[in-house]
Amino acid sequence: MSSGASSPASAGDTSRGFAFALAAYLMWGGLPLYLKALEHVPVLEVLAHRVIWSLPVALAVLLVLRRTDALRAALADPGMLAMAAVTAALISVNWGIYVWAIQSDQALQAALGYYINPLFSIALGALVLRERLSVAQWAAVGLAAAAVVVLTIETGRLPLVALALTLSWGFYALCKRALPIGPNQGFTLEVLLLCPVALGYLAWLGARGELYMAQAGGLDIALLLGCGLVTAVPLMVYANGAKLLRLSTIAIMQYIAPTFIFLIAVFIFAEPFGRAQMIAFPMIWAALALYSFEVLRQRR
Could you read off the pLDDT tens digit of each residue along the chain, which spans 300 residues? Predict the structure, then answer.
């Protein structure tokens, strides 16, 4: 998923930018269906395939766009590599938690995490970057925090999956702001840094005779190879769409993905939607409505 808070915005919205962003959010929204088809494959192996097969896709896009110069410069800059290593670690944690959530019938928590994410991002902006928030924005953050408290009290435990996704993506977006490289090049650099670890892990599994792909059927192999497409394509489509949209437009469009995840979790995966969720989710939706209203008011 992506956070509008860390994306550039153009002076006005364009239909091309809207189409790109909408396509990206719809792909992210449908991703649980793809990952559910791989629920019998170990989480870390799925994660490794997401990293490895994203690299050729990302490199191909850079070659087509003729934007490899920045990547080569970044590879020669130790400071840039160190910063990219941090963002790469954060995004890999986020991906891994998300895969585990879908495989463990916790898609509803994943939806909650990505609903909370924009509110966490504006709170981070206030606390870390000293950005000034309006009363309405603080109220939205408080309402989201209250929803987490309600869930914790009603279920007897913290919604750890949702919080882990929110924290990992929120800090990823924050650190990504400091990475002075284009979004496509930055993503390519991140998967390039993660690839040796992913390849090493698969080699270790193979040496132990535990590599699932070595004994998988044709469909599973195709799905594992396709992990690169479903990981890289939405991110890169989004990155190009975000440049052609106002930040306020992106801020509201980002609810599309968690809404689809929510609907899939409840109506396709049939995950339980009990009293705690019936109280907490409307609180989150109210917080997002308040946040959206404030975004639109500031835009005007």
Answer: 654 444 444 456 788 889 999 999 999 999 999 999 999 999 999 999 999 999 999 999 999 888 899 899 999 999 999 999 999 999 999 999 999 999 999 999 999 999 998 888 888 888 887 878 788 888 998 999 999 999 898 888 889 999 999 999 989 988 888 888 888 899 999 999 999 999 999 999 999 999 999 998 899 999 999 999 999 999 888 888 877 887 778 878 889 999 999 999 999 999 999 998 999 999 999 999 998 888 788 776
Residue 38 in contact with residue 46, Cβ under 8 Å? yes
DSSP assignment of 83-143:
HHHHHHHHHHHHHHHHHHHHHTT-HHHHHHHHHHHHHHHHHHHHHHS-----HHHHHHHHH
Token representation of residue 92: 């890999």
CA distances in angstroms from 124 to 97, 99, 109, listed in the order given: 21, 25, 21
- The overall longest dimension of the chain from CA atoms, in Å, is 61
**What does the DSSP assignment read for 253-288?**
HTTHHHHHHHHIIIIIS-----HHHHHHHHHHHHHH
Whether residue 38 contacts residue 224, with contact meaning beta carbons closer than 8 Å, is answered with yes
Task: Give which of 88, 99, 121, 134 is closest to 254, Cα–Cα.
Answer: 121
Q: Give dist(CA 180, CA 123) in Å, integer.
A: 23
| pTM of the entire predicted model | 0.89
